[in-house]
Amino acid sequence: MKVLLACSPIEGLGGRQACSVATKAWREVRPGDEIRAWAVSDGRPVPGGTSGLDEVLGGVPAPLESHPRLHAWRTESQVLFDYTNLLALDPFDGIARQASSSMIGKDLAWAGDEGLRQAVVALPGPSAVSDLGFAILDALAPETAGAGLGERIRAARARLGALHVTTLAADEQRLTGFRGIARTRMRRDGLCPHQAQIRDAEVAENVEAIAEACAGAVASLLGSGPDPRGAYAGSGGGAAFMLEALGARTCPVGDVAVRTRLAAHVKEVDIALYVASQIEAGLPSGLLALIDEAPQETPVVLVYDHGGIARTELRGLQVAGAYELRPDLAFMPREGAGPGVDPKEMAGILGERIRVVARTWGY
Fold first, then answer.
1. Is 294 exposed, middle or buried (0-12, 13-18, 19+ CB in 10 A)?
2. Are 103 and 196 in contact (CB under 8 A)?
3. What string of H, E and C letters represents the secondary structure of 63-117?
4. The two domains 2-39+267-361 and 53-253 share their CATH topology (first three levels equal)
C-alpha cells in the first residue's frame, strides 16, 4: 500500500514529531508499505506549542520586540507571523482577556523596514482582539491618528510599501449573523445578550465605515474593497478584515498547509491519514482540503486528540474513519495551563492509535 500521513501538531508533539511517531507505528504493523509523511498545520492554538505553521513554511526564528514570545520566522524574502496562540480568545490559561491588534501593525512595519517581499499573518478564529484591527492603523501610520479613516488606511497602505500580505484564517467566522464576534464572546467569556447586541451594532457600524472608506478613498488600490460578509473576515477579531482593507489576501490555512503541497501526492496513494489536535465545531481546513483533493475511492482517516463531535457526524463529513486519542477530554473544559502532557506519553498514545488504523485499513 501507498500511505500518506499528514500530521498537524497535537499537545506534546510538533507536526514533524507526530510524523515520526506515526511512520514508525505504521511500519511496525505493515513494514512493506510505502509511506509519505508531511508535517501540516490546522492554524489552531495547541497547548504548550505553536500552530506548526513554522514547520510548513520554514524560516529561522526572528525574535521581535512586539512580544517576548517567539511568533515570527523569516526567510530571505518572507516572514511568518503566527498569532494563533498569542491572540486567541480564552487560550489554555482559562483567562478571558482582550488584546490590541497593535502588535500586528508593528510587526508588519518591521517586515517592511527589513525589505521583505511577503508577510504571512496567521490569525485565530475566535480572538481576543477587541479593536477590529484599528490599532493596526495606529501602529503603521501614527501621524494620521486624527485624520479621516480613508486617509489613515491610505497612509498605512503606503507604509507597507511593496510588502505583500497574506492572512491565514483557521476557521470561518463572519462579522455578522449567528457566528458574529459578539456572539462568540457571549458563548466564550460570558458577555450578556444585551451587551452582545450593543457590541454587534458597534461592529456593524465600524465595518461599514471601513468598507466605505475603502470604496471611496483607495478604490484604485483595492477595486471594490473587502467583503464584510466574507467567510474569514472576522478572523482575529476582525483584524483580517482590516488587513484586507490594506490590500491583504485572506485564505484558509488548509489551502497553504495542505492543498498546494499535497494535492498531487494524495492522488497517488491508497489511503490518507490526517492527524489533528482538538476538533471543535468544524473540521480543520487542512483536513477539508485533503478530502477535497483525494480521489473518491481513496479513504481519508482522521486521528485526532479529542473533540465534542460525534463519529457519525465525522462520517457524514466524508471522513472514512475517526480515531480519538484522549476521548475523556472531549467535553471537559481546560482550566489553567497545568503542567502539560508528557511528550513520551502522547507519543505512546498516538503510536497505539496508528497501529490500530494500520491493522484495520491495511490490505
1. buried
2. no
3. CCCCCCCCCEEECCCEEEEECCCCCECCCCCCCCCCECCHHHHHHHHHHHHCCCC
4. no
Q: Cell numbers at residue 154, please?
A: 491610505
Any idea which residue has 489552531 for its cell?
Answer: 44
> Residue ranges of the domains in the chain?
2-39+267-361, 53-253
Q: Tell me the three cell numbers of residue 106.
A: 508593528
CA distances from 59 to 53, 120, 169 (A): 10, 12, 20
Q: Dihedral through CA 38, CA 43, CA 46, CA 48, nearest 10?
A: 90
Per-residue burial over 272-288, b if 16 or more Cβ lie within 10 Å, else e, is bbbbbbbbeeebbbbbb
- 232-275 tens-digit pLDDT: 888 888 899 999 999 999 999 999 999 999 999 999 999 999 99
Contact (Cβ atoms closer than 8 angstroms) between residue 221 and residue 239: no
Using an 8 Å Cβ cutoff, are 123 and 89 in contact?
no
Interacting residues of 243 by C-beta distance below 8 A, sequence separation 6+? 104, 121, 133, 136, 165, 167, 250
**Cell representation of residue 223:** 477595486
Residues in the chain: 363
**Superfamily of domain 53-253 in the CATH hierarchy:** Glycerate kinase, domain 2 (3.90.1510.10)
Query: What distance, in Å, lies between the first and last C-alpha atoms of the chain?
Result: 7
Domain 2-39+267-361, CATH class in plain words:
alpha beta
Strand spans (E) along 185-262: 249-252
Residue 227 cell numbers, joined: 467583503
What local confidence, expressed as pLDDT, does residue 336 receive?
A: 45
Residue type, 298: T
What are the pLDDT digits (tens) for 75-114? Answer: 999 999 999 988 987 655 545 567 899 999 999 999 999 9
